[in-house]
Amino acid sequence: MKIEIERDVLLVALEQVFGVVERRNTIPILSNLLVIVENGLLSVTGTDLDIEASASASAAGSLRTTVPADKFLAAVKSFKPGKLSVAPIEGREALTVKQGRGVRTIATLPGDEFPKRAPLNNPVSFTMQSDVLARLLGKCAVSQSSDETRYYLQGVFLHTTADKLRGAATDGHRLIRAEIDLPDGASAMPDIIVPKKAVAQVIQLIGKAAGDVVIETNGTAISFKIGSSSIISKLIEGTFPDYSRVIPEPAGNKITVIRDLLITAAGAVSSVVNAEGDKTKIRSLALDFGASDGAHEMSAKDQTGSSASEPIEATYSGTPLRFGLNSQYLRDVAGIFAEGAALTITLHDPSAPLRIVSDKDPDLVGVLMPMRV
Q: What does the DSSP assignment read for 208-240?
């Protein structure tokens, strides 16, 4: 009932599952990680009952217990790189983590009490490259909703077309759609909504483990497996709105601007009316596009009389136009596109949604709803 493992190997496994565990729990076992060592393999599992994350690593010995996630991670981090020994204390619900003369003692709970999810029944299975999945989920994640009353928007909607796998997310103010070529075997995948916590956990996992990702879903749950790590999550029950109706067709009023210049201008103007310490934050920006390219401007003002304006280096074709945008939403949506990309922004009129695409990101479409100014 003692194991030996390299400190850095154990640390990687713990960091891959730690984010699933909620800091505050009314059920003590859910604050713990399940640690099992057998047949030369260590498995670490964390859960919040909706999402379960597991990671594995080579280890010698035998062990089955649960240990508080925060304390175990802190204990392992506190040691230098090198071999660690982990062993339960006989007669007590506790274990020790040792390296040389250094000892950390942590309380445990029985491993048999840990609620582990069963494998998915009759899933659709397909494989994707990890960087492709990270882009698909990561780009959409920007516009996920945090409104609990519209729970079906609190995630990324995945669905298939004849030749594409598409992801979409919206909070009602901004919308992002991303797409990739349809992976082999994915055509039978049902329409699903992946919860935002699962999205974040998968993106984090991909950042720590390289390789192809095996995805399985049966319409009620989804699993992602990469290397020796995996995530299983419930899916959001509900119907995602027909977002394609929100994406406008290209309009006659057309703005072409470099992504970086637009973000810089929005940040510069916002910094004055949203100075640190201000009780009231001004979210709206006014954008003016005139008949000549030298007349384009972004501006904002607050209730104290402070104001800021900045010229916009852009080309514009259409009738003179003035419309408002949320400064943060503008930066978020523009930020999904590649650095240095030329953005094409079209809108029918000042009250119409903006369609945003780029010359470097044919897989992405952004939509922004305007504000009154």
A: H--SEEEEEE-SSEEEEEETTEEEEEEPPPS--
The structural domains of the chain, with segments of one domain joined by +, span: 3-113, 124-244, 247-368
Cβ–Cβ < 8 Å for 109, 28 = yes
- The DSSP 8-state label assigned to residue 254 in this structure reads E
Cα–Cα nearest to 73, from 55, 100, 50, 89: 55
Fold match, 3-113 / 247-368: yes
Query: Mean pLDDT over residues 42-55, rounded?
Result: 96
| Distance of alpha carbon 274 from alpha carbon 50, whole angstroms | 38
Nearest CA-CA partner of 79 in 96, 58, 95: 96
Please check whether residue 120 is in contact with residue 218, taking contact to mean a CB–CB distance below 8 angstroms: yes
Q: What would the pLDDT profile of 286-327 be if each residue is shown by its tens digit? A: 999 987 877 899 999 887 788 899 999 999 999 999 999 999
Q: How far is CA 30 from CA 52, 92, 95, in A?
A: 11, 20, 18
Asked whether the CA dihedral 332, 337, 341, 342 is positive or negative, the reply is: negative
Domain range 247-368, CATH class: alpha beta
Gap between the Cα atoms of 150 and 139, Å rounded: 21
What is the tens place of the pLDDT at every residue in 330-372? 999 999 999 999 999 999 999 999 999 999 999 999 999 999 8
Q: Are 220 and 235 in contact (CB under 8 A)?
A: yes
Which element (helix H / strand E) includes 99? strand 94-99
Q: How confident is the model at residue 225 (pLDDT cuts 50, 70, 90)?
A: very high
According to CATH, the topology of domain 3-113 is DNA Polymerase III; Chain A, domain 2 (3.10.150)
Tens of pLDDT, residues 87-114? 999 989 999 999 999 999 999 999 999 9
Closest Cα partner for 172 from 368, 19, 3?
368
Q: Is residue 277 pLDDT above 50, yes or no? A: no
First to last CA, the chain: 68
The sign of the dihedral angle between the CA atoms of 204, 208, 213, 219 is negative
CATH architecture, range 124-244: Roll (3.10)
- Residue 66, CA distances (Å) to 14, 24, 95, 266 in order: 13, 17, 10, 49
